[in-house]
Structures are given as C-alpha cells and as structure tokens.
Write a structure and sequence with these properties.
With about 375 residues, the protein is an alpha/beta fold. It has 2 domains: about 100 residues, no CATH class; about 240 residues, no CATH class. It is about 45% helix and about 10% strand. Strand 4, helix 12 and strand 5 form a beta-alpha-beta unit. The N terminus is likely disordered.
C-alpha cells in the first residue's frame, strides 16, 4: 500500500469513529506518526503538497491542496471553494491546507467555521452543549477548524430550518418528502439517535453510530415519525470491512439481516452489506430499522444528503436502494436542492440572505472558473 493510500485509509476510519487502526509494519507506523505530527504542528511537508497545484496562483493566494486529493475533481474543487471562503475572511497561511483555520484566527471567535449569524451561533452553542451531554461529540477540533468538514455544514444548513417555529423547515421538508405526509416538524437535532437522552446504556445502537441530523415530525395522522440524515460534502463512505471480521459486531449484523429485519434486508446480499462499498449505508439503514422497533417513533427513513457534483455518492446510494426491500426507505437529496428550497421559502430577508451565503460558500463552483482554467489541463 502506498503512503498516501495508507494515510487516506486511516483518515477515513478516523472519520468513522474507529478507535484503532491495523498497522501492518514498522514502516506504516512511522508514516502514521509523521502524518499526525504534521497535522498537530500545522506544518505541511513538501511531499504532501499536490504536485499539480505547486506554485500556482491559487496556492499562492489561498493555500495548499493536499497530495492525497489526487485526481478527485469534486474533492479538489470543494476544497478550493473553502480556500476562497477562508481567503475572503481570514489571513492566509503558507503552512497549512487551504481549508484549515489556524488557532490564531480563532482568538476572538472559535465559531468561525459557522456562518456569521448571531442566532445561528447561539443555536450552535446550545446544540453542542446537548451533544456533549449525550456524549456524541467526536473530533471537536475538526468541527471548528476544518472548513471542508460535513459536520459544520450540516449545522449551517439545518439549524436555521428550526427558526420561527419551523416555518421554513416545514415547507422545505414537505417539498422534499411529499410521500411522508408531513404535518409539522417538531425538532431537528444534530449527532442524534432517538433515546440518546436516556443515557448511553439505553441507546438504540450498541456502538457510536448516530445520524448526522435527525428530524422529528408529526404526520397527518398525528403519529410521531423521523428522518435520519447522513451528510456527505466530500467525505467518502467508511471503508471498514466487516465481512472478514470474526467479532461480535459481525455476528450482530448477520443476526439483524437474517433474523431481526428480514422485512428490509436480503440474506443474499449480506456480504455486500458488510463489505466496504456499502457498509456505512447498511449501518445507517440498520439504525433506521432499530429506531422503528425500539423507540416510540412510528416510521423512520434514511436520507443521504450530498453535493450534486458528487456523482460517485449518488451512484452508490442508487445501487444501495436496489439492495434493500422497502421503497422510499433510503432517499438521496442534494445539498443544492435543500438550499434552493430554503431560499425560496425564506420568510425573512435575513434568512434568505443567510442561505445565499451558504450557497455561495458550499456550492458556487463558478467562482473557481479562472483558477480552474489554469489547472484543468492537468486533470
């Protein structure tokens, strides 16, 4: 395995909340130590600079693109967007990736990874307190310092949908999910699974898996229902392979497929569910099934929110839909569509302006046109 491939595998597993990594030899151990030392010191070694971006106008103006991005155009362009966003607001550093915010930029406001809106920042503070009490917060530094992370993006997009008694949120979700017969939203929570508030020993899941966003609503029959949301801006799905494991976790998954949730999962696809390609989607869907069985939530579905530029993610979700039994239980939604609806249904000019800024930060790839003209010959 090449150095960058090994580093990427470790990073993806870290995103998935895995506590330990399988280091096969001393050389990999050395590579890993050097990589995390680099991240800690915020110093980028020459070999970690993307060769196609070295000394370009973009790198000079906004910062470094990592070599690990390789030829992933969606990832690179999204990182560039965050570099431009950072460059518009904070001083550039030659020593870090263009999407990283340094601590000296955070002296007066550690919430700079969230959109500049007083109500939103207040909501973020309250939500973070609740997440910590539920012991669901992981990688706090990444939340505050990595502009490319999906987690703060989820806060930015979904928390304002709670404002004014869910006025905009109700309209957006009714438009996104007409088949759910939504009467009204009741809550939007981050890093949450129903029952979390009752303590770790009462959790629906027996590991640290949870939804990035959970939307609780009443349907037209006044039944309490939910939408568990997985948010992907640029991150890949987990590459963990549960099929080759021999531990209790694999046994639990097999039992879920073959015994507990036969109305959703096919036994003939159990290897596909546990292999790296689909395992995170399977685990997300499994949480949905357990929420329906173990909590008062009457109905629950999974929504996967992704960039419309991320064709790989869209294709993966479409394939997974064909591996499960129940129609409309796993739904792909684009970030762009949510933002477009939020702007259309905005009840105050300030709310519309906020979503226009969110759109510009995360989705306005047109602003990269001049820089991309310089670079596209390399891709």
């Amino acid at each position: 395995m090449e150095d960058d491939d090994f580093i990427q595998k470790v990073w993806l597993e870290a995103l998935d909340g895995i506590d330990c990594f399988i280091i096969q030899d001393k050389e990999q151990e050395k590579i890993l130590k050097e990589y995390f030392d680099m991240l800690k010191d915020k110093v980028i070694d020459e070999k970690h600079r993307h060769p196609k971006f070295k000394d370009t106008e973009f790198e000079k103006q906004y910062g470094i693109i990592p070599a690990g991005d390789k030829n992933n155009v969606h990832l690179i362009k999204s990182r560039m967007l965050q570099g431009v966003y950072r460059g518009q607001k904070y001083k550039k550093s030659d020593s870090v990736y263009c999407n990283i915010v340094l601590e000296d930029n955070m002296e007066d406001n550690k919430f700079i990874n969230f959109m500049r809106d007083k109500q939103l920042v207040k909501d973020v503070e309250n939500e973070l307190d609740a997440i910590k009490k539920r012991e669901r917060l992981t990688e706090e530094e990444r939340l505050f310092t990595n502009l490319l992370s999906s987690q703060p993006m989820a806060f930015n997009i979904f928390l304002p949908l709670k404002w004014n008694y869910f006025n905009v949120g109700n309209a957006v979700f009714k438009e996104l999910f007409p088949f759910l017969n939504i009467k009204c939203l009741e809550d939007i929570q981050m890093e949450y699974v129903p029952n979390d508030e009752n303590g770790k020993d009462k959790r629906v899941t027996r590991d640290r898996s949870c939804f990035d966003v959970f939307v609780k609503y009443k349907n037209n029959n006044d039944e309490t229902c939910g939408i568990g949301i997985e948010v992907k801006y640029t991150e890949s799905f987990s590459q963990s392979d549960y099929w080759n494991r021999t531990d209790d976790k694999k046994t639990r998954y097999i039992d879920a497929i073959e015994k507990e949730y036969t109305n959703q999962f096919f036994k003939k696809y159990e290897e596909e569910y546990l292999r790296p390609k689909y395992n995170q989607l399977f685990r997300n869907q499994l949480i949905v099934e357990e929420v329906k069985k173990k909590t008062p939530i009457k109905n629950c579905i999974l929504a996967v929110v992704h960039s419309k530029e991320d064709e790989k993610c869209a294709k993966l979700v479409a394939e997974f839909q064909d591996l499960i039994k129940q129609k409309n239980s796993c739904i792909p939604i684009t970030i762009e569509r949510i933002i477009k609806l939020a702007k259309a249904f905005a009840d105050f000019p300030e709310t519309k302006s906020l979503y226009e800024k969110i759109d510009d930060r995360y989705c306005n790839y047109e602003k990269l046109k001049d820089h991309w003209e310089e670079l596209k010959r390399n891709f």
